[in-house]
Amino acid sequence: MNEDLKTRIQEKSFVYISALVIIGAFVVVAMISFLSELGVHPDEFDVKACMDWCMNRCFWPDMRLTGEGLGDTFSGYGYTKVCNYSPYFLIFSKIAYVFKQFMGALPYYRMPNLLLMAVICVYMLKKLKDHNYLMLGFGICIQAWYIFSYVTADAEDFLLGFLAIALLADKDSLLWRTLYGSLGDNQSDTDGTSSAETGDVPGISLRVVLSCILLGVMYGLMLLGKPYYYATLALTFIVLLEQLIKSEINNRKQLLARYILIAGIAFAILAGRAALDFHYYGFDKAGAEQQMSEQYSDYDKNPLTPIEDQEPTYHMASKGYSIVDFFRYSPDWFELTFRSYASYSVYRDGHDLYYKIMAGLYFLIYLWLGIYLCNTGEKRIFIIVTLLNIGSVVASVLNSYLIDCQPQGRYLLPITLTTCYLGARARELMNHRGFRALVLITACLSLLYFGLFASRKLIDLGYVRSLFNM
Question: Residues 82-108: what's their mean pLDDT?
Fold first, then answer.
């Protein structure tokens, strides 16, 4: 068998096995979505209430609203996710409403996130052949799949972050065609290089303006989302700034105009949302939040409760505890966070070997990427991404210390996305037989654990029987 044939077989094997992993993950998520009982997932009772409340509403409410059932959406932490900056509930409640009309007792409220996962899966299956690095972003982390099986705004944030990285990594994407040419025009020189590689910037057309608006809306929605996904925005900004600096001097003015248009739209969306809050609360939003917290918080989290009766790990900083005290209370914070990242929850389930193997596989993948990039002149981007990833971990620690001790793996999902971009910068490594085997082993082990163990923990057969008996 000649080498070319071997190479083609290896390439096809990677694509086919990766595709099976993605399809398998979707099937497991669909099973969990349909067959798991309400409340077995994080915060799902109050989040479902938020989804139901928004079905016939189109704007964020004043959190102090009375007489319309908004109080039912408040969690035991004393706040309602309806009033978060994210438009998740306002948008996807309408999709949930459609499913509610014909799904009966089945969980209509989870269907929007299942559709969002379908979007990613279809994109992956379409792009895998030429963009196999996408497996690093959505093929080797159970938590990235799991968030699509229940009601959580994290699904929207992850989708937007995934699209942002996918556009950034693909030089023929909408992002680069918008910045360096007319939409739909993949202008090339005689040597076959694209305009994105040469830095040529034709005049701005109406099509380019519309594309800038579309990109601005996407980034604007990301600004409204969970702050820990700002790591993907920061990476996008750094890469585009680097591209601007490298571009021809004669083209910088036009290129900068497109940057400003996209950024202007994004920040206009953020400013519009902030303006609505200012309309409601003026300069005293914190006072409104305090009022609602006193009204709806559980006893052990209520600011009116004596400190000695409050949950010790809730708002530790405001109680005078140091970060050292925090780790004394939660010495296993990093372990539990990783367990949640590599699986679906923080709970110890006796399968320590799985987590040890996954930790080793993740470490080898990242180390191999780092060595390759440092040896091929890409040391700077590896350092930048590593700093962003460290920042994500620090932000998660601070969230637990300042607000509530929640070692949640989903807070670290941006690490998966930024690492995916490293894979895009290491194209030759992604074609290395050994590295691809490492990625496939990680992906297959994740799917097996997710399908054979995690799903059984989440699907209650008694609940399933009750569905079919109704």
Answer: 94
Residues 6 or more apart in contact with residue 155 via CB below 8 angstroms? 112, 113, 116, 117, 147, 148
Contact between 168 and 218 (Cβ < 8 Å): no
CA distance 177 to 194: 9
Which residues 6+ apart lie within 8 Å of 144 measured at CB? 137, 138, 158, 413, 416
Q: Is residue 314 classed as helix, strand or coil in its secondary structure? A: strand
CA 296, CA 75: separation in Å to the nearest integer? 7
Helix, strand, coil distribution of the chain in percent, nearest 5:
75, 0, 25
Whether 237 maps to a domain, the answer reads yes
Amino acid at 375: N
Beta-bridge partners for 188: 194
Is residue 203 in some structural domain? yes
pLDDT by residue (tens digit) across 178-223?
Answer: 998 743 343 433 233 344 444 444 556 788 899 999 999 999 999 9
Output the six-digit token pair for 214. Answer: 């579309």
Q: Which structural domain, as residue segments, surrounds residue 253?
A: 171-283
Sort 97 into a burial class: Cβ within 10 Å, 0-12 / 13-18 / 19+: middle
Q: How many angstroms separate the CA atoms of 165 and 388, rounded?
A: 14
Task: Identify whether 255 is part of a domain.
Answer: yes
- What is the dihedral sign for C-alpha 90, 93, 95, 98? negative
Query: pTM to 2 decimals?
Result: 0.93
Q: In terms of Cα–Cα distance, which of 405, 414, 352 is closest to 385?
A: 414
Residues 244/293, Cβ–Cβ less than 8 Å: no
What torsion do the CA atoms of 187, 188, 193, 195 make, to the nearest 10 degrees? -30
3-state secondary structure 217-241: HHHHHHHHCCHHHHHHHHHHHHHHH
Strand partners, 360: none
Is residue 192 a part of any domain in this protein?
yes
Q: How many domains does the chain have?
A: 1
Q: How far is 459 from 31, CA to CA, in rounded Å?
A: 8
